[in-house]
């Protein structure tokens, strides 16, 4: 069984990169390459091979080599986990970072861990996903007019990226917002980290960000107006407690709470009614 990160272009399901995809090795190169992406697919490819943060590169590859015992027979992705979903999304879901044995293993954000189990079930009930589960890349799951992303694209030690790592990764999310801006209606932030990371990027993208910045909370909503010259329409940003195992086990987040947020997001985006 092979260990370590999956080489780009080697046949992993849904791998957006090839052997010729440029690799960002510094924060400056992240900014340069993110600005060159002509589509969300090209952007995902660039994200998926990034090596700009040495601590994150070392950790994600160490996890991919050592593995968790329950996944010892599986190959780990071991690379940055790019944005995933509809290219013309009306709803963007932003998390903190991939899980070490979830997205870092499967190569798809929120796929293959308990947070994802809860999240995808809610997205399915809310009419934003075609299946209630997401187990591996290439399993047939598809998001409906929605896209998933993260403030940080690599699994961080103890699930805690540094401020510098967040800032180095920010141009990827900024470029994603730029690619989606024509049709984007709603952004759901999973957790306080994602909420905080989003506001400076919205301001840079030409949105009229409220001052003071809105306070995070589950179900909190803030409407930001766009700019005609930047072709940005109004957006609604919704806060959502992260569906982490700790939050779901303690009851801080319930299925009903998630369904309320994603049902509201679907409604604001003008999408189909939730499944009954």
Summarize the SSE layout with pairings:
Layout: H1 27-36, H2 40-47, H3 54-66, E1 84-85, E2 91-95, H4 103-106, H5 114-125, E3 146-150, H6 163-180, E4 186-190, H7 192-204, E5 221-224, E6 235-240, H8 245-250, H9 255-268
Parallel strand pairs: 2-3, 2-4, 4-6
Antiparallel strand pairs: 1-3, 5-6
Helix pairs in contact: 1-6, 5-9, 6-7
Main attributes of the structure:
10% strand; 276 residues; Uracil-DNA Glycosylase, subunit E; 9 helices; alpha/beta; 6-stranded mixed β-sheet
Explain what you see.
By secondary structure, this protein is an alpha/beta fold. It has a domain at 81-268: Uracil-DNA Glycosylase, subunit E. 36% of the residues lie in helices and 10% in strands. It has helices spanning 27-36, 40-47, 54-66, 103-106, 114-125, 163-180, 192-204, 245-250, 255-268; strands at residues 84-85, 91-95, 146-150, 186-190, 221-224, 235-240. A six-stranded mixed β-sheet has the order 1-3-2-4-6-5, with helices on both faces. Helix 5 packs across helix 9 (255-268) and helix 6 (163-180) packs across helix 7 (192-204). The relative contact order is 0.15.
